[in-house]
Amino acid sequence: MGFIAGAYGAVCYVVFLGSFLYAIGFVGDWIVPKTIDSTAATTSPIALSSALLIDVTLLGAFAIQHSVMARPGFKAIWTRIVPRALERSTYVLLSSLLLALICWQWRPLPAVVWNVAARTPYLLLAALAASGWLIVLLSTFMINHFDLFGLRQVYLRMRGRDYSPPNFVQRALYRVVRHPIMLGFIIAFWATPHMSIGHLLFALATTGYILIGIQFEERDLLSSHGPEYAAYRARVPMLLPIGRLHRGRLRGRNAGLTDSELGG
């Protein structure tokens, strides 16, 4: 059973990696055969309405699966069916398949919201989008990448060892904002030199989902880590480090320090 669990976890991770890498090209309109702004076959009102309905359904299906399966209550029921060591890998697999479905079945809405053609601003926006994806990837390693995607769970099962959740950590970007992964996604989704109606729909829907999803996640984290996470939440801003910088300057002034002494 341990070998089967390991193989299953590895397959789920490979599916995730493929869908994630394709999604980078899909959202950024880079390299891959079909992107979020691939040319639409028609611009008739009926076709556009149909495209809008399909896109909203795809995004809704991903949001529902992603949120429901992440909740502790669902996990408690789900692990009566799926072995606990495979729960996270199964979650990753289903999320990845739905992401792949979005990339495959997405219907472009080609009307232009903005288009940046000048070379320097174009490259800056593309670089900003790439930095968002890099933040997402690096942030997973700042906590526990292999636990996040189910590999640690199946590895422990292969070794015949009991699973224990990773410790609560506050390192690197997690000292600046509480949800750097989500911040990276938001940057990647909005930093584009060409914003179509379809891309705008995608960015608005995913950003709204992220902001709602964070509330549920924070509730779960408070339940799991108690006062430690409550203190962390009071000290570190959710997505933007603006509040942190402001509080730092206030502390500096109260202590009689200048901004230069604070490194500002």
Describe the protein in words.
This protein has 264 residues and is mainly α. The chain has helices at 2-28, 45-68, 72-78, 84-105, 119-142, 145-148, 151-158, 180-190, 197-225, 227-235, 242-254, 259-262, and strands at residues 112-115, 194-196. The protein has one domain (2-262). It contains twelve helices and two strands. Helix 2 packs antiparallel against helix 4 and helix 4 (84-105) runs antiparallel to helix 7 (151-158). The radius of gyration is 21 Å and the shape is globular.
Number of structural domains: 1
Q: Main beta sheet: strand number and arrangement?
A: 2 strands, antiparallel
Tally of strands: 2
**H-E order:** HHHHEHHHHEHHHH
Shape: globular
Portion of residues within helices: 55-70%
Number of alpha- plus pi-helical segments: 12
Structural classification? mainly alpha
List the uncertain runs: 249-264
What integer value in Å does the Rg equal?
21 Å
Task: Record the SSE blueprint.
Elements: H1 2-28, H2 45-68, H3 72-78, H4 84-105, E1 112-115, H5 119-142, H6 145-148, H7 151-158, H8 180-190, E2 194-196, H9 197-225, H10 227-235, H11 242-254, H12 259-262
Antiparallel strand pairs: 1-2
What's this model, at a glance?
With 264 residues, the chain is an all-alpha fold. It is built from twelve helices and two strands, in the order ααααβααααβαααα.
